[in-house]
Design goal:
CATH architecture of one domain: 2-Layer Sandwich
Shape: elongated
CATH topology of one domain: Tetrahydropterin Synthase, Chain A
Distance between the termini: 59 Å
CATH class of one domain: Alpha Beta
Largest sheet: 4 strands, antiparallel
Strand content: 15-25%
Helix content: 25-40%
Structural class: alpha+beta
Oligomer: single chain
Length: 173
């Protein structure tokens, strides 16, 4: 019986310590903003002319009107060719930000969009866009800009942005 007392005591101390640490380290809940707390539509009584020098407060992005998102059904697979051989595959998933009530029309032109997007991605791969550190801001911005230009060429101004939701590079071994 005495042999079981020490492990049982240590188990209880471990569980108690874990619960205590969990309660102590639990993050505080986000305060709820009640309509009475809003002044001019801003929380905490901030007015539109208030400025903050804190880096913690990022300015809100106004999208203007509402947007919808049209997810293209299948992922894009792009080979990265070096010295005449496929050295890697890049797999991407793309969604399009579209104006309200236009996602059905945009998705109706998906085969043409996929063709144009694949050509852009092949060109990007051929100039080395998927080599090395391919997720740098400059590389991704150039790719998104060219994808958006082609999407707007095909679907008009209904497409307002191109979102790369997943991107993976698998190197050949």
């Amino acid at each position: 019986m005495k042999k079981m007392l020490l492990p049982l005591l240590l188990l209880l101390l471990g569980i108690g310590g874990g619960v205590g640490a969990g309660l102590f380290l639990k993050p505080e809940p986000e305060p709820e903003i009640v309509a009475e707390d809003l002044v001019d539509g801003n929380p905490c009584g901030e007015t539109a002319t208030d400025t903050h020098d804190d880096a913690d407060h990022a300015p809100a992005i106004d999208l203007g009107e509402e947007r919808e998102y049209a997810k293209l059904n299948n992922q894009f697979v792009v080979p990265v060719v070096e010295d005449g051989l496929v050295s890697a595959l890049v797999v991407m998933a793309i969604s399009l930000e579209v104006t309200p009530d236009s996602s059905t029309g945009v998705l109706a032109s998906e085969p043409k969009l996929r063709d144009a997007f694949l050509q852009v991605m092949f060109n990007h791969a051929n100039i080395g866009g998927f080599s090395g550190n391919f997720t740098t801001g400059t590389n991704m911005r150039a790719l998104r800009t060219e994808l958006l230009r082609n999407a707007q060429r095909i679907s008009g101004s209904n497409v307002t942005d191109v979102l790369i939701t997943d991107i993976v590079r698998q190197d050949s071994s």
